[in-house]
Amino acid sequence: MKTIFDITSREGQPVQPVLSMQIGEKNLAFAITGAKGQDLYRLCYFQREPEESGLPERIREDYPELKENFYSIQLVFDYPNQALVPATEFRKEDAGLLLKALYGETGTDSVITENLPEWQLYNIYAVPSGVLQQLNKWFPAAVSRHRFSLELRGLQVAEEAGVIRVDIRQDDFTLVAGKAGRLLLARTFPYETPADVIYYMLSVCSQLELGQQETVVELSGLLEKDSALYKELSQYFMHIRMREADWTDSGQPAHFFTTLNELARCAS
């Protein structure tokens, strides 16, 4: 794994430490905060190599604070093989078959289902079995969820004109769109250039009938305000705002680690 960020914001350990960890195909990140998720003590963000399918044991050797006792452990899975199914159509025994039909053979992946009663949906997703077994060994008391399940917590009251929440990573981004209290889309897109991001977002607006002049775009992730991508987005969308973490200063733009911050707040 390649270390992208290694931040120590406060020395020592909080009284009721919370560990928040994000695990995906391409990235792994963790943050240690106080019980309410506002006081940041440690944050690390890694880019995973293509051949790394599991979780390297050395991460807990290199970062021994991961072996400490935590008041709460929150995990979020960021794997792309996922589907949202209306509760009325959900059949647990068919979950694996649905992912196989959408993404092909899932191999040794474990299929997980999450009930999202506030949306009357089930989130079905696949996690590599080896990763799941390692996490259960390390953190048997952890609470886990999928990335889009976490995103939907913040989309419970979508604005009448529509909201698109976008989180930018090194070579892909997640997009969640809602309007008038309805979820319209939750999906991960790959990109190589700013033009790719613009293309997907304009296509989403066209297909979902979201007006570029009215829709609110909420941005987070590895995106600088003076970047070419942000400047391009500003030309196409009138209402752009950053989703900023509310924890103490990490030394980086507050919107870089919004997902970890929202995950930490789940513990309070």
Summary tags:
single chain, 268 residues, alpha/beta, Nucleotidyltransferase, domain 5, six-stranded mixed beta sheet, 7 helices, 14 strands, 24% helix, 35% strand, globular
What separation lies between the terminal Cα atoms?
31 Å
CATH architecture tag of the domain at 156-237: 2-Layer Sandwich
Radius of gyration (Å):
18 Å
Order of helices and strands: EEEEHEEHEEHEHEEEHEHEH
Strand content: 35-45%
Q: Just give the CATH class of the domain at 156-237.
A: Alpha Beta
Structural class: alpha/beta
Enumerate the strands of the largest sheet in spatial order, edge to edge or round the barrel. 1-4-3-2-5-9
CATH third-tier fold name of the domain at 156-237: Nucleotidyltransferase, domain 5
Please tell me the overall pLDDT: 89
What does this structure look like?
- The protein is an alpha/beta fold and 268 residues long.
- It is built from seven helices and 14 strands.
- Strands 1-4-3-2-5-9 form a six-stranded mixed β-sheet. A five-stranded mixed β-sheet has the order 12-11-10-13-14, sandwiched between helices. It has a three-stranded antiparallel β-sheet with strand order 6-8-7.
